[in-house]
Design a protein that fits this description.
Layout: H1 3-7, H2 15-29, H3 31-34, H4 38-54, H5 57-74, H6 84-90, H7 94-106, E1 123-130, H8 131-134, E2 138-155, E3 158-174, E4 184-186, E5 189-196, E6 202-208, E7 214-220, E8 223-230, E9 235-238, E10 241-249, H9 250-254, E11 260-263, E12 269-272, E13 284-287, E14 302-309, H10 318-334
Parallel strand pairs: 1-8, 10-14
Antiparallel strand pairs: 2-3, 4-5, 5-8, 6-7, 9-10, 11-12, 13-14
Length: about 325
Amino acid sequence: MDHYSILGVSQSATSEEIKKAYRKLALKYHPDKTDGDKASEEIFKKISDSYTILGDVEKRRKYDGSKFSNQRTTRGPEANGFNFEDFVNNFGSGDFRKRGSDNARKTQGKTHPKPPSSDHLNIYVHEKITLSDAMVGKKIELKFTREKINYTGKAGNLLTYDKETEEKDIVVTINLRSKYIIIKEDLGKKIISARVPKLGNEEVASQLNIWGDIEQAPLIGDLHVIIELDIPDNIKIDGNSIIQNVSIPLSKVIFNDDKIKIETVNNKKYEVDFSRPVSTTNLKFTINNEGLIDDKGNLGKYLVHFSVILPSIDLLNLEDTDKLKSIILDCETKS
């Protein structure tokens, strides 16, 4: 029994249209109007039963769902045409692929509409994390709001649904030493970006199919997470290696009074003794396996490059300047 047919309305009829159709039929077939006619009494019972179902929002939703399910199971394999629900529910079935092929042959010369874009439904979340935290597995909590569709059924060829705002929380873990992550350059900034499919905003898109009928499809955008690495000015990333520049005074290089203490970006401490190097142009300290992991699972190096700061002799008087010059020239001559 099709309740919509009994009331003489389409499956896309509004609640007000259903109510008006029921009142009109009830007035016509009410027992008080038909003088006890049995046939009219049976019609009135069917009208009342149909309105009991379609006049209640929840009962109508369940009826629409069961009606559609029954239609799908009773269709023969040679049935023509398909709609959006067919596509969603039967994409993997051989029967659907056969019907799809049959339809493709029957639509030669017609242009299928271009699928609607969901780019406008994408959500972009920006965060910032220090390089130090990114190297030790820091967890980042991301909060965002999305528009979600709750589907309640089907009215004729149209989907019925409610729309609500949903608050979402996800946790992203960044560990550049245990998992290979692509780091990109964007306007001078180092960023990590990731796309989480189907976690953006949702909407229902309507368009005309090749036969000129309205068809609907749910559209869901993606969540784009963009994390900027907060890198100190004296640090740079080269491939899977980290390079740290450290400035030291000349006295620290030519005298062995104190070892040079350095602290890496991942909070490890080292002491360096140059033992009076011959040249100051390429002073460096290398720590193996303390860089970032690459796509082959290899950890890079941590390189510390030292820049020697020359003292300003402008603060010396002429006599001291001459003495210093004499000493330097004497050392150069003996070297």
